[in-house]
Design brief:
It is a single chain. The chain is an all-alpha fold and 160 residues long. The protein has two domains: 82 residues, Alpha Horseshoe (Serine Threonine Protein Phosphatase 5, Tetratricopeptide repeat), CATH 1.25.40.10; 72 residues, Alpha Horseshoe (Serine Threonine Protein Phosphatase 5, Tetratricopeptide repeat). It contains nine helices and no strands. The chain starts with a helix and ends with a helix. Keywords: Repeat, TPR repeat.
């Protein structure tokens, strides 16, 4: 992958460039090589332990490996660094839901939505968690909001 070669070159020039290590990890993650992604994300975090994005990305890699406990730990670290990281809250909700902890998942989605009320994916995920608890009325409302936001985003995209 050409992107990985570019990140390798950036790392060769500056081995302490945490963003390059992070991005290399994400590239491996996108290829499905989650264990290797974690290795590179760990290097980004070693260079900059306060790099919330790298913690979030490491959580994603663990989640894709099915290790939701470790994923939640990484998301908690990302959230600890930036409590207003709606993406990390949404991802923590997803991992919590995968563990069957729908109450926690809904709490996380609510936090993501509080931070970003127009976060369509968080609304959709909240609907899925509510449906899993049997709360079809609130699930339908969350799905409706997600659809509305999706239509709004689609219309805005078409206007540009």
């Amino acid at each position: 992958m050409q992107a990985i070669q570019c990140y390798d070159e950036a790392i060769r020039i500056n081995p302490d460039l945490a963003m390059a290590w992070n991005n290399k990890g994400v590239a491996y993650h996108l290829q499905g090589n989650h264990s290797e992604a974690i290795r590179f994300l760990d290097e980004a975090i070693r260079i900059n332990p306060d790099f919330g994005m790298a913690w979030n990305n490491k959580g994603n890699a663990y989640a894709n490996l099915g290790n939701f406990t470790e994923a939640i730990h990484c998301y908690d670290l990302a959230i600890g660094l930036d409590p207003d990281d709606a993406l990390a809250w949404n991802n923590k909700g997803r991992a919590s839901g995968e563990q069957g902890n729908y109450t926690e998942a809904i709490r996380c989605y609510d936090e993501a939505i509080r931070i970003n009320p127009d976060y369509a994916l968080a609304w959709y995920n909240k609907g899925e968690a509510l449906r899993a608890t049997g709360d079809s009325v609130n699930a339908d409302a969350a799905f409706a909001r997600a659809r509305e936001l999706g239509r709004m985003a689609s219309a805005a995209f078409q206007e540009t």
